[in-house]
Amino acid sequence: MNIGEIAKRAGVSRSTVSYALSGKRPVSQETREKIQRVIKDLGYRPNASARALANGRTSTIGLVFPPAGNHYTGMQLDFIGSVVEAAAAYDYDVLLSPSGVDSDRSFQRLLGERRVDGAILMEIRLQDDRVEHLLAENFPYVCIGRTARPDGDWWVGLDHTALTAACVHHLADLGHRSIAFVNRPERLLRAGYESAHRGLDGFTKAAAERGLTVRAYTCEDDAPSGQACVERILHDVPASTALVTLNEAALGGLYRGLAHAGLHVPRDFSVTGVVASRWAETVTPQLTAADVPAAQMGRMAVELLVERLDHHDAPPRHHLLAPPISLRASTGPVGTGSPTDPHRTPGFDSNA
Amino acid sequence: MNIGEIAKRAGVSRSTVSYALSGKRPVSQETREKIQRVIKDLGYRPNASARALANGRTSTIGLVFPPAGNHYTGMQLDFIGSVVEAAAAYDYDVLLSPSGVDSDRSFQRLLGERRVDGAILMEIRLQDDRVEHLLAENFPYVCIGRTARPDGDWWVGLDHTALTAACVHHLADLGHRSIAFVNRPERLLRAGYESAHRGLDGFTKAAAERGLTVRAYTCEDDAPSGQACVERILHDVPASTALVTLNEAALGGLYRGLAHAGLHVPRDFSVTGVVASRWAETVTPQLTAADVPAAQMGRMAVELLVERLDHHDAPPRHHLLAPPISLRASTGPVGTGSPTDPHRTPGFDSNA
DNA sequence: GGGATTCATCGAACCGGTTCGCCGGAAGTT
DNA sequence: AACTTCCGGCGAACCGGTTCGATGAATCCC
User: Fold this and answer.
1) B12 touches strand C (CB under 7 A)
2) How far is residue B291's CA from residue B325's CA, in Å, rounded to a whole number?
3) Does residue A351 have a pLDDT over 80?
4) B71 interfacial to chain A (CB closer than 8 Å)
5) Cβ–Cβ under 8 Å, residues B318 and B153
């Protein structure tokens, strides 16, 4: 069922069918209606590959995000969902590419073989070879996150530096003097993930400003690691009374670790960080956090990309977001009781 | 940069370049090397649209899942991740389509315009018009979930009936006599989502067998709704001592609701259900649950689809999974104390 | 040494759309 | 009546690959 078949049955040429569909040249009322009737009867839809080949656009955007194996976080889910939804509104499909680096086969497929018109990159690194590559190729893209040189680039990002600093100030204002930082996995920090780096920077600087005792940890993206991380924190600095985290996936484990140590949140120990509100509200007590507006960021990324695709010479644009801290229930003033004096029996989780 | 350019620079015809690349006809060592050198120098990669047009296959599979707006669950994330990863192993890309029903524009784009070679459908309904449509069109697909008529169909699914029944028996064995069921949102139940229906069936039948007092609830896919749901449960049947849930996204809220009511899990109240292990381990105490092997299911779905694509006349296959209940820490024998006698102060979550 | 075989390569057609240039006839102008 | 203008539609070329049949040279066999 192709355009030739439609043309034949409508008794016109292929080009006339094409013009009737695209409207790029006038077609008489009469023939247009005849063509549309045939199309409807046969349930014809133009072949996407042929169309893409002819006009050089696939109407597809690539969403590049690191591979699984390790875990996905809920925030990534929010990004994916909002990107897909926003793209649909602009009549774009979304192709998923699980690539962390330039050299990935998947990345080459997507771009080299022109499967997509443009790309949205997630999990940006400060030095990101994917970005360098796209820049060199002049391939349209938008980053969710920003590299070390964000000027003249297309991105939508969070001001992690400001956000973690705000968390520190919030805790310092409540009287906390010894605070831990729970980062993303060490592997990601080493690889130069921007959120991990900028978050750590903001934390460190703000802590120095306030003269706090701090210690930074890395933690895998899962609950058991979060629990283990809290154990390390309390072992290293038993006087710790609060933590700031970027690690959404470990959050449940952090809470569990504190509960096992007999520490009540927020009475004995405060927890805050940078987390999507949807997940911050999942834990009990609900997390006081800088809410990551993941859905909004996904939408914005699509909007920027569409703009870039529509106007090939549009000047670079970006959005830097710094949402305020939402006060929920996981932070409070430093308690008077010793944190090693549990208010309830540790180890109530019998098979831990 | 196309195949003609490569041919010209290598001093051969276009067809020779094509054969050198595909290996479908022998090409002399000498010319092959020359061609490969030129290709490498120019960084050539064949255009995917042209290739798709010529050989009628896009090397892309569609992943059809309901739109956002409502929330995505973690389980869906696991499916998406594992499908993408498995597809990559077979050299397929994954195109996301946020469509719940046949009539969605996105669905029509994907299939009618032949953007994909096959589709994987998520969130199956007992009567699913998408499945009917694909069946009628003889379009290759695999369902994650099964319709009311699963015979002769391609799918990988969970035996929700058996799983919820197992949860009931587990609780009954522990002495629970009054159990609540927390289902997915009412909208989904009405729409005929298979997990919601089969899960409810299994729950109801097993409860009848064991002569238990039960009550079933629907609950939106988020924490606040979970909390509200627990309040309803305790209001309706104060003597309830356990619940079974299919609602992963509400889990955190269910726990919070119990905590607010002063009920300790598992001493005063047991919780179990059907949840991916990754999320079951997030909550404290960790959830005793039938672990949804989402990653495995995603892989299997891709394998089935690839088989179907490779052998167009392959007989229908499916996998029905019924993972055992993983005993963690959220269920226990019915306590001796009255459940309305809190062991700790309710409302400790100060801004709830 | 001539006919059959093998091998590497080429040219042309095709996949299913889009787009450009052109043409024939009706309408409008003087 | 002859000349321009306008409109609707047609045919051919093109996008960038794949694939089939044919061709010519080298090799083999009796």
Assistant:
1) yes
2) 7
3) no
4) yes
5) yes
